[in-house]
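Re: the pair you flagged

First of the two:
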Amino acid sequence: MFFKRRSAAAVALVSLLALTGCGLNGGATTSALTPDLNQRIVVDNFRAPVANWALESDAAYILSLSGCLETLTKFDQAQGKVTSSLATDWKQTSPLTWDFTIRDGVKFQDGTILTADAVAASLQSVLAAKVPARAFNPDVVSDVAAVDARTVRITTPSDSPLIPYRLASVNTGILAPAAYKDGTIDPFGHCTGPFTPVSEKPKQSLTLDRNENYWGGKVQLAGAEVRFITNGATRATQVQTGESDISLSIPVASLSTLEGDNNVSVLKADSPRTATLYMNNGKAPFDKVEFRKAIRSALDLESLANSIYEGAALPAVGPFAASEPWASPETAAPKQNLNEAKKLLSAAGYTATQPLKIVAIVERAEFGDVAAVIQQDLAKIGVPITIETKEYASVEPDLLAGNYDMVLSQRNRLIDIADPIGFLTADYTCKGSYNLSHFCDADYDKLIEQAAKTTDAKERYKLYANAGRILQDQAVNVWLVNEQAIDAVRTDVQNHVQDPLSRYVLTAKTSKSGS
């Protein structure tokens, strides 16, 4: 289902599950053709790794989708729950401790054995990072230790029912002890996954070979190349010409061409991803809520969704999609109201002196057009705007430091941890590690602290809904449209299951028929 408001039956189901899988299951490619074990494939990804493969950074996502990095637990989209991976089982042994049993018989790609000591050391490295991982940091985990040869104990500063979710975060991926030398991280040959990185062209590509000793069974491909292609149109062209076999995050403008190609399958899935106009709440004139509300009132989200997104997205109702179990059911998408916007500008005491700047992230091909529409709408209320396009990696330091006006980007609410607590904590608490909005509200922080300790999912979701209302009432950002995850796959690729969160792409089962 695509962004339909949830039914009472869906809510009842959610109360039984830790997280709904409804609407998040990706499409799959299957084929009756015989796979060729000598085949290699090319995957076009929309972002290159940064931070020299530091696991606390987004580089962990590249290693995970490449089939190198694995975690103790794994979030299964189809089942809507956390399942086993490098850990076979786990239990909460006290209000502040969780014990994870390490899978027996697993070897790192360098031949060393996966042990509790190795796991603990890897997790301790993430915990000690200067810039902590959003899902796994000293605020939520106070200690990691090997209890015995097969048991790792996670200790938390307060009761934390979501620890198994946090251990499914790609940032908690496990590397061999030899990967950590002289303060650097080297994943090459030190993962446990079905594919082993063998070479890298910085900011261009990563080449991988089959892991012949993979614990999870025979790997069906000889290897793969993951290319870092920031231009969405290029990713679409390459999968159509056969230069790539799988292209992630296809822009809407390329859909009609790809959907008419018999050699390409277009996969779509509901995604917890919202295109967002981030506003720097810590900088004038955005430090006044009336000004932020004026920006929101000036924008025509319905027209934006129908034009730029060609109906492949819906106007956002706030920080959550209406179909999500933690969204406020009474919330509606804001309507354009230019008269109200002008009144709010007056209340904010705003006088146009120099243009404000919108940075449009180039990894999302449509953001240039979205910025132009916003520029036109804001001109109607007397707010001049200039537009600058940049790659995300180049602009992130300024965003985190608060050296910007507005930025067009998108945030996947479930990518840090398969529950909104990660997103709500990192992005909007006063000390949030990814608080691009530079928003701080004591009442909001108390609500999130309470939610993090709430075991009952239904009650926790009510707290999330309340948190969403605060963000919307404060007009922290303008949430523009709720998007779909759109990938394209050549039809000779077999057993590919789309992951809307872009964590798992190359797996042991991924294969390709012979030519």
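Second of the two:
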Amino acid sequence: MADHAKTAAGVLAGVGGENNVHSLVHCATRLRFVLKDEGKADATAIRAVPGVITTAQAGGQYQVVIGNDVPDVYAAIQSQTKLGGAGSDGADEGPKGNLFNRFIKMISAIFTPILWALAGTGLLKAFLAAAVTFGWIDATTTTYTILNALSDALINFLPMALAITAARYFKASEFTSFAIAGALVYPTITALNGQPDITFFGIPVTMVSYVSSVIPIIVIVWLQSYAERFLLKVLPGAVRRFLTPMIVVFVAVPLVFLAIGPLSSLIGGGLATAIGWVFQTVPWLGGAIMGGLWQVFVIFGLHWGLVPLFQLELQTTGQMLLLGPVFAAVLAQAAAVAGVLVRTRNRNLRSLAAPATLSGFLAGITEPAIYGINLPLKRPFAFGIVGGALGGAIIAMGGVFSTAFVVPSGLALTALLGNGNMLMLGIGLAVAILVPFLLVVLVGFTDPVDSTAPAATAATDTVVLNPVDGTVVALGEVPDAAFADGSLGQGVAIRPTSGAVYAPFDATVVAAFPTGHAIGLRGVDGVELLIHVGLDTVKLGGEHFSLKVSSGQEVKAGDLLLEFDGDAIERAGYDLITPVIVTNGDLYPDVADVASGPLSHGEPLFRAVSVDTLTSAR
């Protein structure tokens, strides 16, 4: 197995160390350094590093050709240095995407380190709830108290866990972030929730609960990262190390209490008033809002503004109509992740989806499902909103209510039994579960590539169809040594005469670069292919390219993969020659039946010859 950390360390030493690197990005096959002094780079030493194919210098970049493993070596360099990350001065690898996509990416990155703990304790919480429901454990015993604490602690003190992961993401001090989060959930502070006449140096404070909250701690750690960088620059060296955390904590915690808390309370209170009015005038619409958007409110911490409305409704009417549709919201997200469990071929995703499904259905603990799976995959989360809205509308139309405040879950459904139209409750719950489950299974989502899937142990020859209209050129004629000498793999090149690239066989897209200049495919027989449109075209940053697929997507032979403006690319000074190479040379070391001359897309280009074929021929 390749030692990517060793390769990364060797490359870094060969280019003159981290201090000699101005910026670092990577493309489909190579690391692209901009060095402060190229004279410090030792090409001979770099080429001797295990995992390095060759080096090249072009366009002001010092290029280290790695091949298929370049993302892993790049990640290893990131872990060893500050290069290539959010805090570096390197160029971006591609478009960051719209604000929503960046928000989802941030939330996913912050939650990923704690997902397994959330899933495990959530599952334990579900089992404990089942034990109480079926009378196996008495909820008044100290045994229950201990089990409840160890299964509920992580979700209760979630801001403290998120403080650490958010600090790592935003490159802030982890323990300063921890101190801020600890203040938010400190017992005496939690006890002030809802109390009147709270002030801070005479300034009125509206105290809300930060237990299990997500957004406040992420926002304040983000601000903390900027404050720390500023203070570390301006404070004298003798005092900056202890004054910085002191100032940050002193400012950050009151800022949450004075601004973030009241703002969330104001928005939540406005939502509560509006939703209450809707329930009175158009019940089905109120049910659709609660069922569809409850989990969205939870993400932003706005659901706390609705909790007092639940209590007020219970005090004045003895029942809670607003709570019924929330069951639909919770079970819909659990059903969506169940659909992912059935549909995905990714082992890691499946192993996380299983406990997330159980804890969601049984205990109503949806954090592992939402933050670990549904929200990052986008479609399952959207399908859950649809199912929750439909189910919530039906439940509200049935006048279903609860006479006790419970955490909505499968095991807590007894709180609704006998209260309102039970037929409408059953239909609403069935719709909330079946709609997102079927949508996820039938419509699908972009399944992440399973990096843990075992490599193929046997290979068969694969016919590669021509992906782009043009003239076939021998690989040795490509004016780039890494391609020309076959270091990256065997294949051919095409001089394109049109601006579209099509799938050369049935495959999974394993690498769809944001810049659109290259695509990596893995065929159903195991052959891995790189289609690289032009030379050094990664520098265009996606300009003149239009990517039509995404990583993890399954494609059929002839499907459109990307479009490009060949004339504009050539006018920008780039060679449009397009190498088409087999990158897993350990299984497919040669090509045969290579076509020549002009060729339309879809016609046979060459045959990837497997190692098994070569072995049997000897």
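The chain has 21 helices and 20 strands.

-B.
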